[in-house]
Structure formats: structure tokens, C-alpha cells
Amino acid sequence: MGALKEWLLSVTAAAILCALAQGLIPPGPVRRVGRLTAGLVMAVALLSPLASLKGVEPEEWLESWQPQGEVQELEEQRDETMKTIIEAECSAYIVDKAAQLGAECQVELECAPEGDGVFLPWQVTVTGNLSPSQQEQLTRQIQEELGVPPERQQYATKEESP
Fold first, then answer.
1. 3-state secondary structure string, 55-67?
2. Residue 61 to residues 20, 58, 67, Cα–Cα distance (Å)
3. How many Å apart are CA 40 and CA 14, to the nearest integer?
4. Do the beta carbons of residue 126 and residue 91 sit within 8 Å?
5. DSSP character for 114?
6. Which residue, among 44, 38, 35, 32, has the nearest Cα to 7 in the 3D structure?
7. Which terminus of the chain, N or C, has less C-beta within 10 A?
8. Share above pLDDT 90 across residues of the chain, in percent, rounded to a whole number
9. Alpha-carbon distance values, 60 to 49, 51, 67, 69 (Å)
10. Considering only CA atoms, which of 111, 123, 39, 59 is closest in space to residue 81?
11. What is the DSSP secondary structure assignment for residue 151, as one 8-state letter?
12. What is the pTM of this model?
């Protein structure tokens, strides 16, 4: 608040000084130079706070604007939401592929983070009564299309599930 008061006082003082100078300058070419000079003095007075600003990097501004803990919490929520969406979409995809093979099943899929916060399918559990042929075809499709190798794919019948 003090800086604003100081700035307003300097602008007011510059305006009064310029008005007095304009009143004392005789008409003619000298008055035009005087108006130009008064305009420059007013511009300097108005823009003086900008000279005292230091350059701030966007990351510094973000950190000072919002506490780091909140940013991290939002990133964690975003990651968890993305993981949940990917798991649901991939599970629905596998159920659809099984239906195309003529099998009805339920799928539990777990994702794991890979690299830059990207979640990829990691482990799949398919529960349903699939024939060996259907299971083999589904295993191959899961491996080829979702990148989950057979050793991380589990199959259970509805009777075996808890």
C-alpha cells in the first residue's frame, strides 16, 4: 500500500510540475518542445514502478502463487484419475474382445506408471468360463494390443473366484 501511495504522489507532483512549466513557457516552437518534455516526464512518472520490478520465471511465480503441497496434491489426484480411467477403459475393451469371441467375463486390470506419468496396463485378471481356445485368443489379443505379456495375465472361472 505504501508503494502505491508513493507512486500516486510522484505522478501528482510530476503533473503539477508539468502544468506550471506549461504556464510559464511562451507560445511558439519553445512551447511545443516544452509539451514534448512534459509528456516524457509524465510517462517516466507513470512507468517508474516497472523499473523496480525484477524478472520472475513462470515456475517461480507459480510456486509463490500456490503452495507446492497443493500443486503436488492436484498432480496426484490427476494421476489417480487418469489411472482409474485407463483401467476402466482397458477392462471394458477386454470384456468387449471376449464378447466378440463368444465369452462372457469380468476383468480386473491394474495399471503401472511408465516414464512421464503415463499409466500402462500391467496385470490382467479375467474371470469367466472361457474355453481353452477363447482363452488363448484373448491372451494373444491382450498381449498384442495392450502390451501385457501372458505371465501377467491370469484366468479364473466364476467358481474359483471368491
1. CCCHHHHHHHHCC
2. 43, 5, 11
3. 10
4. no
5. E
6. 44
7. C
8. 37
9. 20, 20, 11, 15
10. 111
11. G
12. 0.56
CATH 3.30.300 for the 79-156 domain, yes or no: yes
- Residue 110, Ramachandran bin (φ over 0: left; ψ between -120 and 50: alpha; else beta): beta
Nearest Cα to Cα of residue 137 among 155, 120, 122: 155
Q: Which amino acid is at 72?
A: Q
Show the cell assigned to 103.
465369452
pLDDT digit string, tens, across residues 118-156: 888 999 999 999 999 999 999 999 999 999 999 999 999
C-alpha cell at 94: 477386454
CA distance 107 to 149: 16
**Cα separation, 75 vs 81, whole angstroms:** 10
Q: 53 in helix, strand or coil? A: coil
Question: Left, alpha or beta for 31 (phi > 0: left; psi -120 to 50: alpha)?
Answer: alpha
- Ramachandran assignment for 155, one of left (phi > 0), alpha (psi -120 to 50 degrees), beta (any other): beta
